[in-house]
Design goal:
heterodimer, A: 116 residues, mainly beta, 6-stranded mixed beta sheet, 4-stranded antiparallel beta sheet, B: 115 residues, 7-stranded mixed beta sheet, 11 strands, globular
């Protein structure tokens, strides 16, 4: 079975500070996708990024960047120059290639509070 | 372009009762998945419907059942409610067989409280 762990339950920062969210996953499969989702107070989960297990290249997309390291089974996510609107719960998730469909395994989430 | 819509947004039931939650997928999507999110936890996969059939199921008892209609909308039914069924129930839609595996569009959820 797969497992996703987000050790940080809550992070509080002041606007314009950078925020890094940690994610560690467990799976015996070698082919999988990793995701980050954002859940604002309204409740819906919003897709942010997806990475497949073959591609460890780290990228930057706007104020978001991620660090994927298979050797340590980690998929960390950074918000640069945080804004109040970034306040939300962030979830790391995993799905196996062979699973198909939408059976995501989510971590417990990290609540981010950005203060003005 | 309407996104994923769910109803009702909030409801309160008592133990032993039955509940039906409804979901309309995003326009152009044909697949609906349901997730249960207990307070302070991550969502857990309940099941997925495509072509009016249950295609995948998570570790949930038979008290949890569903249905998909020809217009792709879906219902989640929970029988014999327990206190532990209190949660936010999220519906997610996507296109089956596409390359966007896991990139789901979620509704705002139905918050169920069981007393």
């Amino acid at each position: 079975a797969q497992k996703v762990t987000q050790a940080q339950t809550e992070i509080s920062v002041v606007e314009k500070e950078d925020v890094t969210l940690d994610c560690v996953y467990e799976t015996r499969d070698t082919t999988y996708y990793l995701f980050w989702y954002k859940q604002p107070p309204s409740g819906e989960l919003v897709f942010l990024i997806r990475r497949n297990s073959f591609d460890e290249q780290n990228e930057i997309s706007g104020r978001y960047s991620w660090n994927f390291q298979k050797s340590t089974s980690s998929f960390n996510f950074t918000i640069t120059a945080s804004q109040v609107v970034d306040s939300a719960v962030y979830f790391c998730a995993l799905i196996l290639f062979k699973a198909a469909g939408n059976k995501l395994t989510f971590g417990g989430g990290t609540r981010v509070l950005v203060k003005p | 372009d309407a996104g994923v819509t769910q109803s009702p947004t909030h409801l309160i039931k008592t133990r032993g009762q039955q509940v039906t939650l409804r979901c309309s997928p995003k326009s152009g999507h044909d697949t609906v998945s349901w997730y249960q999110q207990a307070l302070g936890q991550g969502p857990q996969f309940i099941f997925q419907y495509y072509e009016e059939e249950e295609r995948q199921r998570g570790n949930f008892p038979d008290r949890f059942s569903g249905h998909q209609f020809p217009n792709y909308s879906s219902e989640l039914n929970v029988n014999a409610l327990l206190l532990g069924d209190s949660a936010l129930y999220l519906c997610a839609s996507s296109s089956f067989g596409g390359t966007n595996t896991g990139e789901l569009f979620f509704g705002e959820g139905s918050r169920l409280t069981v007393l």
